[in-house]
Amino acid sequence: MKIVTDCAADLTKEEAEELDITVAPLFIQFPEGEVNSNEISPDDFYRRLKNIAPLIPTTAQPSSGIFANIYEKIIDQGEDVMSIHISSGLSGTIESARAGAAQLTGKAVNIVDSLTLSGGERFQVLAAALATKTGKPLDFILERLSKIRQETEVIYTLETLDYLQRGGRIGRVQALASTLLHIKPIIDVDKKDGKYSTIGKERTIPKSLEAITEHIAKLYGQETPLWVSVLHGQFAEQAQSLAKLVQGKVKVSKLEIMRISPVLGVHTGPGIVGLAAVPFHLMEGLD
After folding, report:
1. Is the peptide bond prior to 225 cis by the omega test (within 30 degrees of 0)?
2. What angle do CA 286, 264, 114 make, to 5 degrees?
3. Among the four residues 101, 104, 133, 260, which has the most C-beta atoms within 10 Å?
């Protein structure tokens, strides 16, 4: 069985190649033309984003035809497909995947709603890919993905709400009020519906990072070994600070600092920093 995902999972190119994962494109539509998010570096993206301000690009999901072509090529090689995608509560990508699979009558395509994105989606994709390489059965993989989904936390803060406002995700009045009051929202992904939920507000990024760390410590305790992926847009110093805070507060078995996909950065701007965390034992016993 082969794994398919989308670039909102924030896989590295090395991970995709090593584990033979197919990454469907999400698209960024700049005024001068469309760009495959897989084919633009984060720094180049943020440079272009600043150059077109106050305009903001839009994003587009893969078409059902793109998915149908991906699935057909895999199935023609004699493999089944598991396709794991960004939360249905945040994107229509999974509906395109389902429509693409429906074009292949009688073929085995298992569509999985990650109910999250970024590092949280990545954990599920990596787990599925590792399990398939050692021939784990479908029921085992689906059960493990369900457990990972239930126990993964994705949480972040933003320097500004301008990009969410410009992209139509929040109202101008709310964005302006937050700017004037210097509010930095703390946002997580609700496990029930896969949508964003504001769980706190602070006046500074350092305070937000402390709040994120306290949230993780309260959620997992100090004894549960965690795999923590710290993620940021163009906020390297703040990402390092968050990594140090988390390491001082919870038991970290694996820590990495990564960049979020440009297609996610469209709605956040460069000033995003946060993390994805999962109990380490859920990522073990797969390979």
Report:
1. no
2. 35
3. 260
Tell me what pLDDT residue 54 has.
Answer: 84
Q: Which helix (H) or strand (E) holds 274?
A: strand 272-279
Q: How far apart are CA 15 and CA 19, in angstroms?
A: 6
Residue 132, φ and ψ in degrees, nearest 5: -70, -30
Is 2-26+61-150 assigned to CATH 2.40.400.10? no
* 277: β partners: 153, 228
The domain spans of the chain are 2-26+61-150, 152-283
**Mean pLDDT estimate for the chain:** 92
Cβ 158 vs Cβ 184: under 8 Å: yes
- 176 phi/psi in degrees, rounded to 5: -65, -45
In this prediction, residue 105 carries a pLDDT of 81
For residue 1, give the amino acid letter.
Answer: M
Token output for 139: 């029921």
DSSP state letters, 63-85: PHHHHHHHHHHHHHTT--EEEEE
> Topology of 152-283 in CATH?
Hypothetical Protein Tm841; Chain: A;domain 3 (3.30.1180)
Dist CA 7 CA 145 (whole Å): 19
- Per-residue pLDDT, 171: 43
**Of 158, 174, 156, 122, residue with least CA distance to 270:** 158
Instruction: Indicate the helix (H) or strand (E) that contains 154.
Output: strand 153-158
pLDDT of residue 169: 47
> Model pTM?
0.94
β pairing state of 226-232 and 272-279: antiparallel
Contacts of 168 (CB under 8 A, 6+ apart): none
Q: What does residue 88 show for φ and ψ, rounded to 5 degrees? A: -65, -20
* Nearest CA among 264, 270, 216, 262 for reference residue 90: 264
